[in-house]
């Protein structure tokens, strides 16, 4: 065990964009960009000095702005900005160090065995030195064995209420530490993956937790089907979708991930709508995306590989192209066992001209997120024969499957396990090392395009009638 605290291990380096503007325009520009385009993290100022000239200031842009051409900024706002000043976009890198991190009001410790006799002293110092920012000091007890991946905690100081709010990249997440899974060390990975998605993409988050992939994806304009087996996680997922005002873009489910994917991909019987089909039939072909933009299925995928590979090469986390896209879907309903309350609420709320366009997931989705590293590989078999070739349009989806790899194992071994489960060969797999979780164990994300052999109807053997 390390005897010295290595504070650099806590550092996170963010690659952002900033606007260089005359300093007297700082207030006007920040006012204009306040609607979600400014960098927004607690205790970090979005306007900073320009090291090149004290006549200028740098306005740090949200991590949602992925490209220097500012195509992620709404046209109206961009035009006003252009009238106000010259658009001079510069790269800006920001390092958040050891002292920056905390998770809401809860200090979540993992005290090693040899320090357990001092746990109360440690907790008291942390509490006294950080109150009122820290109001609960909790120590993780034992290892996580339950299927919801929720650790057990012993409260060492402060109040026992573990409901708190944390911020990740401008999104707010409410959670109860005692009831749901949360790991603030995955922040970087959440945003890395979401940076591969494009506005209008359809995302299936099979193990969504309280939404750290789903919420930023929806904030980006993706349509998200988010599922978790833990009812408390789904409760906070919905709460967080509301807090972040993206509940029109997120459909929540509380079921086993395999059943979720099967339901999502089930093709509705023509002229024989089920309950849930009828419930979702409020989506008419006249409903449009607020921005009138959505994605075509094909053009995204080369971007993903490019971004994944850039990432692997360590040169860039961000995809560099944000294209204006056309809608692909026309009419029809989002078929699935959508959560009843959510459906009701959506039906009450929905007005013409707002919300995402109608989606038929059995025809197309773009990405599947599988963050259950201990066993996500085992779930890959659900993709074999799941997608029906005769209904599918556009490119096959990307699967992002998290896993652990021990030092005694190799990427080849994991790949062959994945291929066995899929019963198909994976072309050009991409392994991204997420973080070391133990001296001999690291978390990885295996990304690959669903092999065409997995499609139902791809070979004679697979062909089955789907007519009802
Ligand atoms: C490692 S957590 C990831 C949560 C979230 N994606 C994140 O990054 O914080 C895995 C989640 O999978 C959920 N889970 C476990 N088994 C499941 C299953 N069979 N089907 C659906 N969800 C499951 C757990 O409740 C937990 O919230």
UniProtKB/TrEMBL annotation:
User: A Gene Ontology MF term for this entry?
Assistant: tRNA (guanine(37)-N1)-methyltransferase activity
Keyword S-adenosyl-L-methionine carried by entry: yes
Give the E.C. number(s): 2.1.1.228
Q: Where is the composition biased (Polar residues)?
A: 310-321
**Amino-acid positions noted as binding S-adenosyl-L-methionine in the UniProt annotation, renumbered to this chain:** 190, 228-229, 256-257, 371
Which GO terms of the cellular component aspect does the record hold? Answer: mitochondrial matrix; nucleus
GO biological process: what's one of them? tRNA N1-guanine methylation
- Which residue intervals are annotated with compositional bias (Basic residues) in the record? 343-352
Ranges of residues in domain SAM-dependent methyltransferase TRM5/TYW2-type: 100-452
Compartments, as annotated in UniProt: Mitochondrion matrix; Nucleus; Cytoplasm
Q: Where is the composition biased (Basic and acidic residues)?
A: 300-309
Which SUPFAM superfamilies does the record cross-reference, listed alphabetically? S-adenosyl-L-methionine-dependent methyltransferases
Q: Which InterPro entries would you find in this protein's record?
A: MeTrfase_TRM5/TYW2, SAM-dependent_MTases_sf, TRM5-TYW2-like_MTfase, TRM5/TYW2-like_N, tRNA_Gua_MeTrfase_euk
The ranges of region (Disordered) come to 278-357
The alphabetical list of record keywords is: Cytoplasm, Methyltransferase, Mitochondrion, Nucleus, S-adenosyl-L-methionine, Transferase, tRNA processing
Q: What does this protein do?
A: Specifically methylates the N1 position of guanosine-37 in various cytoplasmic and mitochondrial tRNAs. Methylation is not dependent on the nature of the nucleoside 5' of the target nucleoside. This is the first step in the biosynthesis of wybutosine (yW), a modified base adjacent to the anticodon of tRNAs and required for accurate decoding.
Which PANTHER family does the record associate with it?
Answer: TRNA (GUANINE(37)-N1)-METHYLTRANSFERASE, TRNA METHYLTRANSFERASE
What is the recorded name of this protein?
tRNA (guanine(37)-N1)-methyltransferase
Q: Which organism is it from?
A: Oryza brachyantha (malo sina)
Lineage, uppermost ranks: Eukaryota, Viridiplantae, Streptophyta, Embryophyta, Tracheophyta
